[in-house]
Amino acid sequence: MKNIILMMLLMVGFTSLAQDKKNKNAKYNIEVNGNCEMCKKRIEKAAISVSGVKSATWHMEDHVLHLIVNEEKCDVKSVENAIAKAGHDTKNVKATKEDYDKLHGCCQYERK
Amino acid sequence: MKNILLFFVVFLAFKGYSQDTLQTVKVEAKRGKIQKSLIKATNTTVLSSKELLKAACCNLAESFETNPTIDVNFSDALTGTKQIKMLGLTSPYLLIAEENIPSVRGASQAYGLSFTPGTWVESIQITKGAGSVVNGYESISGQINTELLKPVKEIPFFLNVYGSTDSRFEVNTHLTQKVDSLWSTSLLVHGNMRVAKNDMNNDGFLDNPLGNQINVMNRWQYSNPNTGWVSFLNARFMNDEKQTGQIDFDPKKDKLTTNYWGSEINTQRFDFSSKLGYVWKDMPYQSIGFQNAYTIHNQNSYFGLRTYDIKQKSFYSNLIFNSIIDNTLNKFATGLNFTSDEYQEFVFGNDLSRKDNSVGAFLEYTYDNTDNFSVILGGRADYHNRLGFFVTPRLHARYNPWKDAVLRFSAGRGKRSANIFAENQHLFGSSRTFNILDNSGKIYGLNPEIAWNYGFGFLQKFEWLGMKSDASLDFYRTDFQNQAVVDLFQTNQVNFYNLKGKSYANSLQVEFNTEIIKHLNFRSAYKFYDIKTDYNSGSFQRPLQAKHRFFTNLEFETHIKDKGQQWKFDYTLNWFGQQQLPNTNNQLPDFSPTFIVMNSQVTRTFSSVFEMYLGVENLGNYKQNRAIVGYENPFGTNFDTSAIYAPVFGQMFYAGLRFKVK
């Protein structure tokens, strides 16, 4: 009982320490182009497969991907690269034509 | 306890540093009355409050009549309370919780569901099979969780008035006030009474008890989106009185005499519960919750010449921490439970008081690939002063093989101490002698009940003739390693003993639902139960359980007009196959006949704030032939009010109105 509480205390302690250096829970909202539920699954899967990404939620209405990443392990650029590799354009990284063409018919969003 | 407080204090200090960056977007789609998920790993059906408006639904026990997952038994002739069953097992084998705090347990097992008024309910989640380890080790065949109305979301005023031809009247009033931007409060008041004596089957006994209930709850909700703190505080008082027995029974003169047979059951209950929760601002997937509940339940009763008093003081505490490992594909919940129950129980004057307490820790890990597969692995270790030290493993898995289909599997263990008297109170209304045939165990001489439950389910949603439809098939098996067997197969006796041999419950459910034409919904289910126990006198099906059942529900709604005017029609039909009957010394046959029970309701909404409804229960007026066995001589050897396989009361009409101030 005591040990568990001690553990939790330590845990809380660590999280707050870390914020002084690199942010372990950095929040980013980036624009990712896509259409449908299938796109949502693909985008989120691609993002979360990058080591260091803790949470990724893409919204169909505004095309915004909400990310929480551990900046000690990765940066947003590598997440954007992974998403582009899956065929989806992000604000800074565009997918190659081949990767875009591999998308399912209904997922082939209008490219900007 | 002190440590936990310390933890929270430290915690409060830390949160001061955080900044306001959290923005949440909520998307609320139009939701159905019954929701079945394709993504959840557990086999969970959600009933919304709209579903509860489809039937008379005076209280929680009656709110499952329009859905096939839960079977509602007929109220016994004596207490008028309805018992529920899931996978063929009665409510002691279910974990029934109110906002995730176990509520119907111990002393309240028999009547507890009738202590939550239907209008207080926001939604009900029904999980088939073992269920999560977070709320405890006691659930065996399923979990039912009720969410009550939330002060933050509630309308300022709600009034419901109800009356029926079995002379039952009800009033429900809800008042809600937003105190400031952070605090909201609701006052929920329920009153019901049955004033007139009914004896439709002319056996000289009341078909329904006379009674009244006052139930008052005040809840406070705190929610601060800027800091991530949420809290609930609930206080509740309930007083319930029932009188039943022979029509001419007058409790003042005839109590505990052989002038007339009669019974009174009076219950007072006081509940206080609190919840405190915190969501990390920069980590919305991480949260901590702390729940506490204190309950005093006091029942004083007599049944003919038998007295039964039980008082339970109960304390429940649960600390739960949710977070992730690496990313949100891997989630976990871990925490501690503490439960203490002090029973002062007097059975026919014999003092059987006891104290139980348990402490346990749980860990539940969830993997979800966000696509087509998820698995929940749960385990808990508990120490209980009567059950000893034990572990409870549970597993749930889900796989989507193709579009709109889900395959589920679950397995788990449950362990509990059977409160044989509190759970079988309906048997007091008989001349059966009570015998406990074992004496080496720690709970009334009996050993703890242990069972494994396994099951799988398949659900496919599809379009049929252009209309939304779904079909599903579930199979579950419960295997008892030990059971507190309740044996009603000996003449004029009820015997309790440890299981020797086998006891199992198999249940199969096939369901098909569709929209026939726009606004006309059709639900249907066939259920097969094979519930067999090795009794001392041989192997029998569990009494009062139909092997085959068929359910259908039709609902039609007209299009809602500009001001909210609408008609709603609802019709439910239940067909019951033969049921094994207990030994009644040949007063009743070995098996019941098959029969049909139908209910129907019409609702007229005049505007978004006012509606009226009119309904009928037991439309076909089917009544059990001899509801009370041996009614001619209630103090004789064959007297038994508990062998109820069909409605006692015939056709019953009811009407009510609902008024809201938005």
Structure description:
Chain A: Keywords: Signal. Chain A: It comes from Flavobacterium amnicola. Chain A: GO terms for molecular function: metal ion binding. The complex is a heterodimer of chains A (112) and B (662). The mean pLDDT of chain A is 83. Chain A has a single domain, classed as Alpha-Beta Plaits (2-Layer Sandwich). Chain A is an alpha+beta fold and 112 residues long. In chain A, 30% of the residues are buried. The longest helix of chain A has 17 residues, at 2-18. Chain A has four helices and three strands, in the order H-E-H-E-E-H-H. Chain A is 39% helix and 17% strand. In chain A, strand 2 (53-59) and strand 3 form a beta hairpin. Chain A is elongated. Chain A has a three-stranded antiparallel sheet, with helices on one face. In chain A, helix 2 crosses helix 3 (76-85). Chain B is mostly beta strands. Chain B has one domain (30-661): TonB-dependent receptor, beta-barrel domain (Maltoporin, Chain A). Chain B is built from four helices and 36 strands. Chain B has helices at residues 2-15, 49-52, 251-254, 420-423; strands at 34-36, 43-48, 70-72, 84-86, 89-90, 94-98, 101-102, 121-128, 142-148, 157-164, 168-178, 183-194, 210-224, 229-245, 262-279, 287-303, 306-325, 327-347, 350-351, 354-368, 373-384, 388-399, 405-416, 433-436, 449-464, 467-482, 484-487, 493-498, 503-517, 520-535, 538-541, 548-557, 566-576, 595-607, 610-617, 652-661. In chain B, a hairpin with a 2-residue loop joins strand 6 (94-98) and strand 7 (101-102). The radius of gyration of chain B is 25 Å and the shape is globular. Residues 1-30 of chain B have low confidence and may be disordered. The chains are: A alpha+beta (112), B mainly beta (662). The interface between A and B is medium-sized, with 22 and 26 residues.
